[in-house]
Amino acid sequence: MAIVRLSNGSDIDVKLSLEEAKAALGTGSDFVELPGDDGPVLVRPTAVIAIIEDTRRGTTGFRIGGVGV
Fold first, then answer.
1. pLDDT in tens, 26-53
2. 67: pLDDT confidence band, cut at 50, 70 and 90?
3. Residues with Cβ < 8 Å from 26, sequence gap 6 or more?
4. For residue 34, what are the CA distances in angstroms to 9, 23, 68?
5. Which CATH number characterizes residue 8's domain?
């Protein structure tokens, strides 16, 4: 199981390992179909900002640092 973080802040759980998700998103296609919990999900690879492996569901988190304005 992997979690894909999109540039709009949404997270998508996919039924792929980290390596499988990276391979699927690196195909060069405009959209990639990933197997989600509720069925297939179409994702634009350019919108993905992070992929992490969810080794124990519910324990995954993201940290993003930046300069405040």
1. 988 899 999 998 899 999 999 999 998 8
2. very low
3. 45
4. 18, 11, 34
5. 2.30.30
